[in-house]
Every structure is written in C-alpha cells, then in structure tokens.
Amino acid sequence: MTEQSPQQLEGRLNAQREVLAALLAWAMRQPGSDFPDALDAEQGVQDHQEDPGVLADSAFAIEGAAAREMQILLERAKAIRDTA
Fold first, then answer.
1. Which end is more exposed in the chain, N or C (fewer Cβ atoms within 10 Å of the end residue's Cβ)?
2. For 34, which DSSP code?
3. Chain-centre distance of CA 63, in angstroms?
4. How far apart are CA 69 and CA 51, in angstroms?
5. Residues 28-65: pLDDT tens digits?
6. Which domain of life is it from (predicted)?
7. Cβ pair 77, 28 in contact under 8 A
8. What would you report as the CA-atom Rg of the chain, rounded to the nearest whole angstrom?
9. For residue 26, which phi and psi values (nearest 5 degrees)?
C-alpha cells in the first residue's frame, strides 16, 4: 500500500467512525438493548482517576485517546439513533 497523507488517513478514519456510529445506533434501537450502558462501562479512563502528572507516559496517552474515541462514537451513535 502506498503512503497516505495525513488528510487521507483522517478522511478514512472519519468514514470508519461514521460507519461504526451507524452500526452502534442500529444496535441501540434493538429492543432491550443495553449497548450504551455496556460501552460506558468499557471506558478505561475516568475523570476521577489518579492524576498521571504533567508528563503522562505513552500507555496512559493511548488509553486516554481510546476512551475519548469511544465517547465520540457513543455520542455520535446516540445522535443518529435519536434522529432516526
């Protein structure tokens, strides 16, 4: 695969985020779905956890980025679900 520009990578990630959000929204509309609660429970980094200090290590940074992405996906899925 050829090297991609940051803009191309961002575009691809945005498209994947929208597909995932649409799938999550569909799953949330299913009768008896507890999907939002299950995703909220999966959040790895919580605001009340210990302060990592001024310079967080890379593992904490990755975990924080993953938690933020999950929150973004969940919020987008809820928005899609609520408009459909």
1. N
2. -
3. 11
4. 20
5. 888 988 877 777 676 654 554 555 566 667 777 888 88
6. Bacteria
7. yes
8. 16
9. -60, -45
